[in-house]
Amino acid sequence: MAQKPSIPKGTRDFSPTEMAKRNYIFDAVKSVFKLYGFQQIETPAMENLSTLMGKYGEEGDKLLFKILNSGDYLSAVNPGELADPNSSKLTTKISEKGLRYDLTVPFARYVVQYQNDITFPFRRYQIQPVWRADRPQKGRYREFYQCDVDIIGSASLLNEVELIQIVDNIFRNLGINVVLKINNRK
């Protein structure tokens, strides 16, 4: 008897009904972002590891999905490195790309790469999937969507107030009753 196909742990399929619900939520979020004058950008699912590594701390780096180089990627590796399970140099020799862990680091790369083409303050939003090489648990997935909204290039505290208003507006539009509490760690 043939084995039934399955998907990797920590991922999920979405039925047409689930997609309709998700799209309803995403459309509500996007409409508020646009109402406040934010522009949508999109970044690649994969980034160079040199962009991703070191930005999330040691624990975060362990949660990055690394992509094997194509072709004969093992030709640059000596046999001793293959036997060493703790060789961090091995990773850089066989993998130069990884799946994004969040949208913040790719956004920072985007801003640096296109800084001469961006008008500041830059108001951007992104809704895209992200991946974490974490142990899946109930309600915790390896692949999920993240919604980001940011204002860069302005030090005005009014931007922070506006971001809070955006969150409140989104929840109100979705009919979700929330109480927003503000804290200051200083």
Structural domain tally: 2
What is the CATH third-level topology name of the largest domain? BirA Bifunctional Protein, domain 2
Contiguous uncertain segments of 5+ residues: none
Biggest pleated sheet = 3 strands, mixed
The portion of residues forming beta strands comes to 15-25%
Helix and strand succession?
Answer: HEEHHEHHEHEEH
Helix percentage range: 25-40%
Please, how many helices?
7
Termini separation comes to 63 Å
> What value does the average pLDDT take?
91
Oligomer: single chain
Number of E-type strands: 6
CATH class assignment of the largest domain:
Alpha Beta
> Strand order within the widest sheet?
1-5-6
Based on CA atoms alone, the radius of gyration comes out at: 20 Å
Concise synopsis of the structure shown:
By secondary structure, the protein is α+β, with helices and mostly antiparallel strands. The protein contains seven helices and six strands. The strands form two sheets. Strands 1-5-6 form a three-stranded mixed β-sheet, covered by helices on one side. The protein has a three-stranded antiparallel β-sheet with strand order 2-4-3.
Describe this structure as you would to a colleague.
- This protein has helices at 16-35, 49-52, 57-62, 79-83, 88-94, 104-113, 158-173, and strands at residues 39-40, 46-48, 66-67, 97-99, 122-131, 143-152.
- The longest helix has 20 residues, at 16-35.
- The protein contains seven helices and six strands.
- Helix 1 runs antiparallel to helix 7.
- The protein has two domains: 14-45 and 100-176, BirA Bifunctional Protein, domain 2 (2-Layer Sandwich); 49-99, no CATH class.
- The protein is an alpha+beta fold.
- The strands form two sheets. A three-stranded mixed sheet has the order 1-5-6, with helices on one face. Strands 2-4-3 form a three-stranded antiparallel sheet.
- 37% of the residues lie in helices and 16% in strands.
